[in-house]
Design brief:
mainly alpha; 55% helix; disordered N terminus
């Protein structure tokens, strides 16, 4: 039994604090977690440990009442969190408790406040074209930037997925990209002709000028040679996730079904993908209002 003893907030070491920290470390050592997930989960779980310590609670004491109280505390006071942040923090706690106590001992009741559903605001095709055309320029960095953003839009990649690619993941012969997504789940996404042309040109003409010793296996390199990071991608394209939204929405508008889009995006649940059907519905309404004689 893991005990969160008094003293965690005072900085005084004790067996209980060490024990729960050991449990958190063991939980976060799972290879199924991406580095960004591990960092955010650690913040959330250490906050939860402090909350337990302040109330002299043990993990074995937790039931629906205690978790409901914790959820309520997250949403009030000077540090009250937004509903989305509460949901994320509770998801981390539930996952941790399932790993340490077993799934049957973790209440599944809804604890998070309901929040308004925000629809994606994807750029139009013309806007994407303008963004891509604006990346043209001379030199290896300009060619790298154009190839990278073309690929993000063509394959609907998350930022971390794009910069995490290896050279061998881009298969020009089979015309696809092998992507390692969230939770180390692998998927294969078609490689569009335009993106393939730009990436091939970049690899041949620009990447050798950026490569350093020892060589990196990443296709997209920084100015000093190592693998590009997500912060650099955000400087190149300030909102790269909107390109992912555009990828999904433009596919739907072109007639692709939601199941196919789910596979291409790497969504674990179809309900995550269904948000794009609302975007498409707004487009259909505009077409109806413009075209139907009884509109």
């Amino acid at each position: 039994m893991v005990v969160v003893a008094r003293g965690a907030l005072t900085g005084v070491p004790n067996d209980g604090v060490v024990a729960i920290q050991r449990e958190i470390d063991r939980f976060l050592s799972s290879p199924s977690f991406a580095d960004t997930t591990k960092r955010s989960y650690r913040v959330d779980l250490e906050h939860f440990a402090q909350w337990l310590d302040a109330r002299q609670l043990e993990l074995s004491d937790l039931g629906i009442r205690e978790l409901t109280e914790y959820a309520a505390d997250l949403g009030r006071g000077r540090t009250r969190l937004a509903p989305s942040s509460i949901s994320r923090r509770l998801a981390a706690v539930r996952s941790f408790l399932r790993a340490t106590r077993g799934a049957r001992r973790v209440p599944e009741a809804a604890l998070t406040p309901r929040r308004a559903r925000r629809l994606p605001d994807p750029p139009r095709s013309a806007d994407v074209e303008a963004t891509l055309d604006g990346l043209e320029g001379d030199g290896p960095l300009a060619l790298r930037n154009r190839a990278l953003v073309e690929l993000v839009y063509s394959a609907g990649l998350r930022s971390a997925e794009a910069v995490g690619l290896d050279v061998g993941d881009v298969d020009f012969e089979q015309e696809h990209v092998r992507v390692l997504g969230k939770g180390s789940k692998e998927r294969v996404v078609p490689l569009g002709e335009e993106a393939a042309w730009w990436v091939a040109r970049y690899l041949e003409q620009a990447r050798p000028e950026l490569a350093s010793a020892p060589p990196s296996n990443a296709p997209f390199l920084s100015v000093r040679g190592p693998r590009l990071d997500t912060s650099t991608l955000r400087r190149i394209s300030p909102h790269p996730h909107r390109l992912r939204h555009a990828f999904a929405t433009h596919l739907l508008e072109g007639g692709a079904d939601l199941r196919t889009i789910q596979e291409l995006l790497g969504h674990a649940s179809l309900s995550t993908t269904q948000v794009y059907s609302h975007v498409d519905g707004k487009r259909l309404r505009r077409v109806y209002d413009r075209s139907h004689p009884r509109s």
